[in-house]
Amino acid sequence: MADEKKQLLIVTGMSGAGKTVVAHDLEDMGYFVVDNLPPTLLGSFWDLINNSNDFHKVAVVIDLRVKSFYTDLLDEVNSLEDNGNVQATILFLDASDDVLVARYKETRRLPPLANDGKGRLLDGIQEERHILTPIKNRSNYIINTSNLSTKKLKQKLINTFSDRKRQPFSIEVMSFGFKYGMPIDADIVMDVRFLPNPFYIPELRPFTGLDKRVFDYVMNKKETQVFYHKLLDLLETAIPGYIKEGKEKLTIAIGCTGGQHRSVSIAQQLARDLAKKYPVDITHREVSRYIRK
Predict the structure, then answer these.
(1) In the prediction, which pLDDT does 25 show?
(2) Whole-prediction pTM value?
(3) Assigned domain for 25 exists
(4) Is 230 domain-assigned?
């Protein structure tokens, strides 16, 4: 029996209007996405999906890359709906001719109907627009991407198709050691190797910043206090800007020489303070190197 909760979203529209970007965004929103599916396979594909419990939100991208089959799209959609298999939702992506021309020139590609290189770029775009008119008229949603940045396009998709109208924002605070390499996924990296180092205190050397004695030694130093309050003030000023710009996760990496004492202590305090306003995870990348087994 068909699962009534399953959703089929058909993404189509003008070549160059952003279907690849939309496919990636839909994947981020939890859709199972199939790109460049020939329309004649839509019915068989949906039978497979309908008999599986693994997929509930499905999107297929169909465009004139399969131009010899494209005219079958409306027939296939009507057949699916007439048989009661699914109520398909069609999203049509559009853009103005001048924007499409500019995008093609930037990527040095040609629209599907100008692949022979003999016709004008604009002629190929206009012919494609003519062919797509019936499916555009049948579409449930039309998004013109001419003046949309990728960030604004993603938010428009979230507002339209996601159960969550806004992506959650979270912070990861990470400590690390420079001698083991910088984290490549960090958004902000702060070097704290200038702070007093417990490594040179024999009774503290074996421990990490997770130990209260090491933590207190680092955090109670005057230079640490001055630095830390400036750092926290900087981050509390910057974070709302990251959220406004659509950032979903911010990774703040605090590094010292070995990732054992200073960076761990600073990261611990920073995570505590930021957690008063935001969801925060904390990772100590090197600590396992120093824990006695």
Answers:
(1) 92
(2) 0.59
(3) yes
(4) yes
Q: Is 226 annotated as a binding residue?
A: no
Residue 18 known to bind ligand: yes
Residue 1 marked in a binding site: no
Q: Where are the beta strands (DSSP E) in 225-289?
A: 249-256, 280-284
Verify that 23 and 96 share a domain, yes or no.
Answer: yes
Q: Would residue 121 count as lying in a domain?
A: yes
Q: Is 265 annotated as a binding residue?
A: no
Residue among 14, 83, 25, 85 at smallest CA distance from 59: 25
Residue with tokens 């709906």: 81
Instruction: Give the range of the structural domain holding residue 112, as residue numbers without chain letter.
Output: 5-159
Q: Torsions phi, psi of 206, nearest 5?
A: -70, -15
116 or 253, greater pLDDT: 253
- Determine the 3-state secondary structure of 49 from DSSP: helix
Tens-digit pLDDT profile for residues 208-235: 999 999 999 999 999 999 999 999 999 9
- Boundary of a domain, candidates 98, 129, 159: 159
Per residue in 10-52, pLDDT (tens digit) is 999 998 899 999 999 999 888 999 998 888 888 889 888 888 8
63 is in an annotated binding site: yes
User: Strand, coil or helix: what is 250?
Assistant: strand
Tell me whether residue 189 is annotated as binding: no
Cβ-based burial of 84 (10 A; exposed 0-12, middle 13-18, buried ≥19): exposed
Q: Is beta strand 7-13 parallel, antiparallel or unpaired with respect to 57-61?
A: parallel
